Amino acid sequence: MPIYVDVSRCVGCRSCEVACQRVHSVTGHIRVGIQDDLASVPLVCHHCQEPTCAMACYSGALIHEGERTSFDLNKCTGCGLCTLACPFGIIHVQKVAQKCDLCSGREAPACVTTCPAQALSMMTYEEATTRLRSLAAAVVVRGGRA
Amino acid sequence: MIALDASRCLGCAACSNVCPNAFITLEQGEERTIRFNRCSEECHLCVEFCPAKALSLVPETEETSITFPLVKCPSCKACYATRPMLDRVLSAVPSHLQIDAYGTGWVEICPSCRQDLERDRLSRQVIQRRCRIEMR
Q1: Do A135 and A116 sit in the same domain of this protein?
Q2: CATH number for the segment(s) B2-135
């Protein structure tokens, strides 16, 4: 189940970055960027339904299973093909690929449980698309205003 | 000793990354040079991990090196990948996924500019709404 990001709720406190670094030691997999001093946007692996990183990975370190793209540290060679194959530029390589594993072994990812503004939540693809559809419908009801 | 099939090499430097003894070194600037120095070990890691199967271990050969010009990102001009690596990504990813929902061919721009684009798109609606609230 991927992480759903509600940009309008994010306050840019970077608690998610700290939580991620705490769990994964040293390198975090989520990055909060500030856009024009007006909005903060947490960028994290989308766990795409058709993961291009896993298509490019030749060693079998990145594999799409169920609703997530899992990463096997022991198989990674650090070649960087996944970095070039990520449409969102989110995977980076420091000796080995650094990628969100949805905190396997924990009940919920640390970033989601830490976020004080509830900007991050766990949702299935269906829940996320239903939510986006109802948000878009609400815009239409308001006469096209965002 | 390590023998290299230059026509197969992608220039990804996975070999230099896995080499436990730093026999394979990497120099990078506008070009990327991978040097294969004299190697007396028989660990086979570089041969095993090469994505292009370009390496083999042979008893006697000269020290070799290979140089790739790096592709420049059209927007930030950073040198970010070798051409064979991008070609490999293009051949692995089906064509309908090579162009995103906004019609951008993302493979040809660098990962950091892809992040900037994604951040810009995700925040556009929020920023519009916030600007409108300020103007009231």
Answers
A1: yes
A2: 3.30.70.20
Q: pTM here? A: 0.86
- pLDDT tens-digit series, residues A83-133: 999 999 999 898 889 999 899 888 899 999 999 999 999 988 888 889 889
Which residue, among A31, A101, A107, has the nearest Cα to A73 in the 3D structure? A101
Nearest-by-Cβ selection for B17 from A84, A95, A145: A95
Q: Could you tell me where the beta strands, DSSP code E, fall in B1-63?
A: 2-4, 24-28, 31-36, 55-57
Give the CATH number, domain containing residue A77: 3.30.70.20
Beta-carbon separation of B85 and A33 below 8 A: no
ipTM at complex level: 0.86
- Residue B95 contacts A where some CB pair is shorter than 8 Å: no
